[in-house]
Write a structure and sequence with these properties.
It is built from 4 helices and 2 strands, in the order H-H-E-E-H-H. The chain is mainly alpha-helical. The protein has one domain. The chain has a two-stranded antiparallel sheet with strand order 1-2. Strand 1 and strand 2 form a beta hairpin. Helix 1 packs antiparallel against helix 3. The chain is elongated. The termini are far apart.
Length: about 110
């Protein structure tokens, strides 16, 4: 029974890690598209990736406001979870997030 609980906990942790990775790598391009959608284009909203959006507001005067998930906080949470695993996944993730510009190491 304890083994099954541990396995479920690890599965939940892996799902959380994957979601945090997606948030850390998320780009806000679709939010800009959303800001400029007109009423007749509303059906396009379903195809937009708004994963990292925490709040959206369109004011009566037509202005558009968007608040995003705090990426630094997401990276901190991700680092803490990956540090607990101690399997090298943190270094691999960070290397993928900031690839070397000259093709070499570091």
């Amino acid at each position: 029974m304890e083994h099954e609980e541990k396995k479920l906990e690890e599965l939940g942790r892996d799902e959380l890690l994957e979601y945090l990775r997606q948030l850390a790598e998320w780009k806000n391009n679709d939010v800009v598209k959303l800001a400029f959608l007109e009423g007749e284009e509303a059906e396009r909203v379903d195809s937009l990736d708004l994963t990292g959006v925490s709040e959206l507001k369109r004011n009566a005067n037509g202005t558009f406001e968007a608040k995003f998930v705090d990426r630094v906080r997401v990276l901190t949470m991700l680092r803490e979870l990956l540090d607990e695993r101690r399997d090298g996944a943190l270094g691999d993730f960070l290397d993928g997030l900031c690839p070397s510009q000259d093709g070499g190491e570091g």
